[in-house]
């Protein structure tokens, strides 16, 4: 069989939930016909929150409308607002900046590590000033930010710490799960995430009961759950869907197995790609400590050529993120003259992610690795 006859390997697989299709249909029927007719923030949501809290050792888990709104709710619960600054990575997903702006504060962009692409500690410290209220590091692709050092930095400067762990559910660093290093962390449940689902949602996870209570209020128009239509704070509608909660509860026991398969695929890639480092394609740092293989990302000197090369072999790849955050038209106006982010710009030019989802077969993984290794490097 020639490569053109082989089935295409998509980057975003269309069959993520195929194995659970019957369960999903059953839950849809049960949820749609149950006597209570409660479709948001009901029993299933409460059970999912409790099960996640138990699994993590968190004091509270609050399910909400998305990872983005989880960040916004925590920032609001921390009373971060106009006049405040939050130090965020210069490379990553738009909500890192937009959530800060949405509460009226200003994101200050710190450059990233040239290999791991997570925020650089020294750059983060340099960006701390008199208006800084919080640090918001993010885990990226497969690597957790250096949370022990960032926690120490936050404590040294008396700053709040919000951990954007949207993509790192399942990662563990120094025995502590991603999400529990900050006063609060978040997970996104968008379908391609490690605990993704067929819809929109996320959670706030926290070790701080009071913060959890405030987030709980803010997700439902500032009501405290005791008196309806009594609004203690200006809140949002960021509620969680009961059908999705029931489906997530069904999928939770399978999460460790899916994470292990992701790690296994990543370890294979990293071993195969080690010799490519001198030829312009750098694999992420190996290992499992502080790692969570949500996405497997290469740094390629000729990124676009590698993307084309893989496409010609029926393999989809994806460039997250083709522009650093402070270069985006939406966020550039909030930067300061003279600020530079050379490592973030380089990452934007070079990062290329290849498929790493758990239901890839061994032969697909082999085919992907072969195709990368076959790239004409010069
Ligand atoms: C680092 C980071 N933060 C926040 C989010 C937002 O999550 P959601 O898409 O659920 O709003 C994402 C989503 O990809 C992300 O990658």
Automatic annotation (TrEMBL):
Which is an annotated Pfam family here? DegT_DnrJ_EryC1
Family assignment? Answer: Belongs to the DegT/DnrJ/EryC1 family.
Origin: domain of life: Bacteria
The protein's name in its UniProt record: dTDP-4-amino-4,6-dideoxygalactose transaminase
Q: Cross-referenced PANTHER family, in alphabetical order? A: 3-OXO-GLUCOSE-6-PHOSPHATE:GLUTAMATE AMINOTRANSFERASE, TRANSAMINASE
Per UniProt, the keywords (alphabetical) are:
Pyridoxal phosphate
From the record, what ranges are coiled-coil? Answer: none
N6-(pyridoxal phosphate)lysine: residues bearing it: 193
Any one GO MF annotation of this record:
pyridoxal phosphate binding
Q: Which GO terms describe its biological process?
A: polysaccharide biosynthetic process
Catalytic residues, chain numbering: 193 (proton acceptor)
């Amino acid at each position: 069989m020639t490569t053109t006859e082989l089935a295409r390997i998509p980057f975003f697989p269309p069959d993520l939930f195929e194995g659970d299709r019957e369960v999903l249909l059953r839950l849809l029927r049960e949820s749609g016909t149950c006597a209570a007719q409660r479709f948001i923030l009901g029993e299933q949501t409460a059970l999912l929150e409790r099960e996640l809290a138990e699994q993590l050792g968190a004091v509270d888990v609050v399910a909400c409308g998305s990872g983005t709104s989880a960040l916004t709710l925590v920032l609001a619960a921390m009373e971060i607002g106009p006049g405040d600054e939050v130090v965020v990575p210069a490379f990553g997903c738009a909500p890192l900046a937009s959530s800060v702006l949405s509460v009226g504060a200003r994101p200050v962009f710190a450059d990233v590590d040239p290999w791991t692409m997570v925020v650089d500690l020294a750059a983060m410290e340099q960006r701390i000033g008199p208006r800084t209220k919080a640090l918001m590091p993010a885990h990226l692709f497969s690597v957790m930010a250096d949370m022990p050092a960032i926690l120490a930095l936050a404590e040294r400067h008396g700053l709040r710490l919000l951990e954007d762990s949207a993509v790192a559910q399942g990662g563990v660093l120094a025995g502590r799960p991603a999400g529990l290093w900050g006063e609060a962390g978040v997970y996104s449940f968008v379908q391609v995430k490690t605990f993704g689902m067929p819809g929109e949602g996320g959670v706030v996870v926290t070790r701080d009961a009071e913060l959890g209570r405030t987030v709980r209020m803010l997700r439902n128009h500032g009501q405290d759950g005791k008196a309806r239509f009594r609004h203690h704070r200006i809140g949002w509608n960021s509620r969680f869907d009961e059908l999705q909660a029931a489906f997530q509860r069904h999928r939770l026991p399978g999460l460790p197995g899916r994470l292990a398969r992701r790690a296994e695929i990543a370890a294979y890639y990293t071993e195969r790609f080690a010799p490519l480092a001198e030829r312009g394609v750098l694999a992420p740092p190996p290992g499992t400590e502080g790692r969570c293989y949500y996405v497997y990302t290469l740094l390629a000197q000729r990124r676009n050529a590698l993307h084309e090369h893989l496409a010609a072999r029926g393999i989809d790849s994806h460039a997250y993120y083709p522009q650093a955050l402070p270069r985006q038209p939406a966020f550039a106006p909030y930067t300061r003259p003279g600020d530079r982010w050379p490592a973030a710009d380089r990452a934007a030019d070079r990062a290329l992610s290849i498929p790493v989802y758990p239901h890839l077969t061994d032969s697909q993984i082999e085919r992907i690795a072969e195709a990368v290794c076959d790239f004409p490097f010069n």
